[in-house]
Amino acid sequence: MTTIRQLTAYLESIAPLAYQESYDNAGLIVGDPNTPITGVLVTLDTTEAVIDEAVARGCNLVVAHHPIVFRGLKKLNGKNYVERTVIKAIKNEVAIYASHTNLDNVAGGVNAKIAEKLGLQEVQILAPKAQTLSKLVVYTPDADLPAVLQAVYEAGAGRIGAYDHCSFRMGGTGTFRPLNGSNPVVGTVDRDETVQEQRLEVLLPTHLEGAIVAAMKQAHSYEVPAYDLYALTNSNQTVGSGAVGNLPAPMSGANWLMYLKETMQLPLIRHTALPDRPIRRIAVCGGAGSFLLADALRAGADAFVTADYKYHEFFDAEGRLIICDIGHYESEVCTKELIGGLLAKKFTTFAVILSGIDTNPVQYFT
Ligand SMILES: [Zn+2]
User: Fold this and answer.
1) Which residues neighbour ligand 1 (ion) by CB within 5 Å?
2) What gap in Å lies between CA 103 and CA 343, rounded to an integer?
3) Which of 20, 80, 90, 302 is the least crowded, having the fewest Cβ atoms under 10 Å away?
4) pTM surpassing 0.70?
């Protein structure tokens, strides 16, 4: 049977926990990772009603976008909905896992799903993250090269955009002198050696550094392989906040709002003034996205679809683009489809069910 650990390892291969924001609390929030899974209920929010639904439908794991525990819990006596939900989950042996800002921050994540719903093309990350890439340079004897390459590729190195097995190599001469206490594969103690070596370079995600270096050392025949790790300042085009893409054809401002309302099934849109020009380039950010306005403008967006805009923040549009606040729940409810789709594609031994509960705490009186 599949364990919770196997499922979360798969989700984290797509949305690594290392990519969550510093304030976040994504990961396994309640439960034992070694538990075999009976069924998975996918939800945007975990509430008491969602735990009841999981129990009723034979699911012992809830996978949510929003972490039910966000700040520290100091007491657990049921005085608020967070504590009651956690207590109910523990009593009923239902585990809770959240894939939150880490799922927002990857190329195939929440914002890609919103972009797909809107039919956007040429989709890119709106604000690519820096400090997530490193470079490994390792010196190998010619004969070790294939095994070392294979090992670092398998551990996650050498991927750039839609390419894998990316590396650079250059031949040269390595020198060393084995000292007393060494056990050299090549050379003799106390004698200077020169060896024909390859300088091998691969790009890697910084959070996999430990695993990739370990794999390299395992495959390398030297007792002490020589290698360098460099922190890169390049921004990572596949990791970051928001997304931007183009509509297949330009629309008028009024038609765009109608299209947005219908596509995302919105009860209403709070928006800034419509410009006189056609709308083509669209920036999106599920949930609270006002921090990305400058990035949306820099990317040349005509409209910015997000949520949780405050009154004074709407002024910042200054007629340069249409801010479209579609509601937090409405912008992210498609996360259920996204996570459900990923799980159903990978696992077949248990049911993956999308929660039927509307957890939106905001209601509209129109
Ligand atoms: Zn959210």
Assistant:
1) 287, 332
2) 14
3) 80
4) yes
